[in-house]
Amino acid sequence: MEVWDLYDSKRNKTGKTHVRGVPLPEELYHLVVHVWVENDNGDVLLSKRHPHKSYGGLWECTGGSVLTGETSLQGALRETQEEIGLTLDAKIGKLLYSQLRQTHHLDVWLFRSNATIEDLTFQEDEVIDAKWVNEDTYNSMLKEKMIVPTLHHFYQLKESTI
């Protein structure tokens, strides 16, 4: 059972918690992280969603909901470790973007790693594959609708935050 802290629209903790799967109360939000990992070549790490999940079979960055008591950074590190078995260095994480969405506050993080695909361990019910892609391949995948459509375009986001 996943439990989340609840926030108001200005991202203040309300002191209330919420159990995943139950509809959120109106005007309350939880915290979600997207975690982009880039290597020294400028390639980005994508993972392929399990076919039984929404957007099953599409590619994405790692991410998920931040649990009660966690910070955004802690949630980003935990989700990456859980989903693909990659331990990231908290000191080199960079918050690229924050946004209020319909049901949640979203933080988009960027980390660097040169891990190989063989170094990764996939969470069985979440991820079925992973790969490093360069910008051209990423853009082709976007055009072919192979990437989860709710994600920010990584290379555009990265350019806008430099």
UniProtKB/TrEMBL annotation:
Protein name per Swiss-Prot or TrEMBL: NUDIX domain-containing protein
Cited InterPro entries: NUDIX_hydrolase-like_dom_sf, NUDIX_hydrolase_CS, NUDIX_hydrolase_dom
UniProt cross-references to CDD domains, sorted A to Z: NUDIX_Hydrolase
Coiled-coil annotated residue ranges, if any: none
Record carries keyword Hydrolase: yes
Nudix hydrolase domain sequence ranges: 28-160
One GO MF term attached to the UniProt entry: hydrolase activity
UniProtKB keywords: Hydrolase
PROSITE patterns: NUDIX, NUDIX_BOX
Cofactor: Mg(2+)
Record-linked Gene3D superfamilies: Nucleoside Triphosphate Pyrophosphohydrolase
Domain of life where this protein originates: Bacteria
